[in-house]
Amino acid sequence: MINVTIWNEDSIETSAESVLAVYPEGLNGAIRDFLKVNDDMNVRTANLEEDECGLPDEILNSTDVLIWWGHGKHQRVPDELVKKIHNRVLCGMGMIFLHSAHFSKPFISLMGTTCSLKWREGDRERIWTILPYHPIAKGIPEHFELESEEMYGERFDIPAPDEQIFLGWFAGGEVFRSGNVWNRGLGKVFYFQPGHETNGSFHNEYVQRIITNGVRYVAPVEIVEKIECPHFESLEK
Ligand code: ZN
């Protein structure tokens, strides 16, 4: 069984009307609803407004895969929590960052770069599957379209992905590395670009399948208690 925690900076109560018009249960609720039908997943949600930002040790340390969506409140996530998340990934936890989580503290910490990109609101996107044999691409066609999504364009300031699975093309002409995996320590990190809060991409069947496949792909075989390295102090999750 994979213990999945979906984290968002907003609860339903704090989500804007424009978001609730597209996702009546909020972003967390939308992602939870398509993941919870899977018999191999225990799914729970957490958000920034809860005690300890929704991720006290007992939640974080029982999470196999952490899904992260953030936008305007990245700086409210304390550095101490970011370090715990980073170290748990090194110990084996899988992590999925969606859309504007490219600027979240845990993603920047795991990448070691600025993670900046080019952006523009509202464009048609065509997502190309460029690693069709990859487990995250299982059941995904050669390409599919999202009628309206926020344009994210290159240059995306990330380290070269270990696996680049999807490439996004926008009607305005830009391209973007939209689905990428990195190995960090014993953990896997998957970034996937669609998911602007007012665009409805989490209702798309292929977006749902990619995130579902992603959970299974980054799920750890095992999470170790501590990484021992003679050159550094021990990393505890
Ligand atoms: Zn956005």
Topology (SSEs and partners):
Elements: E1 2-8, H1 17-20, H2 26-35, E2 41-47, H3 57-60, E3 65-69, H4 79-90, E4 94-98, H5 105-111, E5 118-129, E6 143-153, E7 163-170, E8 175-184, E9 187-192, H6 205-218, E10 226-227, E11 235-236
Parallel strand pairs: 1-2, 1-3, 3-4, 4-9
Antiparallel strand pairs: 5-6, 5-7, 7-8, 8-9, 10-11
Bound molecules: zinc ion (ZN).
Task: Summarize this entry quickly.
This protein is α/β, with parallel strands linked by helices and 237 residues long.
Structure commentary:
- There is one protein chain.
- With 237 residues, the protein is α/β, with parallel strands linked by helices.
- The chain has helices at 17-20, 26-35, 57-60, 79-90, 105-111, 205-218, and strands at residues 2-8, 41-47, 65-69, 94-98, 118-129, 143-153, 163-170, 175-184, 187-192, 226-227, 235-236.
- The longest helix is centred in the last third of the chain and has 14 residues, at 205-218.
- The model has no long low-confidence stretch (mean pLDDT 95).
- The chain binds zinc ion.
What value does the Rg take, in angstroms?
17 Å
Query: What average pLDDT do the residues reach?
Result: 95
H/E series: EHHEHEHEHEEEEEHEE
Instruction: Let me know the number of strands.
Output: 11
Ligands present: zinc ion
Q: Residue share in helices?
A: 10-25%
What is the number of helical segments per DSSP (H or I, 4+ residues)?
6
